[in-house]
Write a structure and sequence with these properties.
Blueprint lengths: L7 E2 H14 L7 H17 L3 E4 L2 E4 L1 H8 L8
Antiparallel strand pairs: 1-3, 2-3
Length: about 80
Amino acid sequence: MLSGKATFEFKPLFDVVYSNLKARHVANGSEEMLRLRVYEKLQNLVNRGMVEKANKKYRGIASALARLQGPAAGSPE
């Protein structure tokens, strides 16, 4: 979601992530605990310079996020 040019506040961003996890049946634990984990991971991305935070809105930096994904699995480096 953050690889596009759109900006998101945390609540709508979390709602989409949580919906996707529920649809894949991988949303284990309580929603509140998951919210804290997602917020922590988002803040780590901000600290690493992969996501910009302006006020309460977040926007991914595509080139930095592409490095996070790295080379495709199984492809030579």
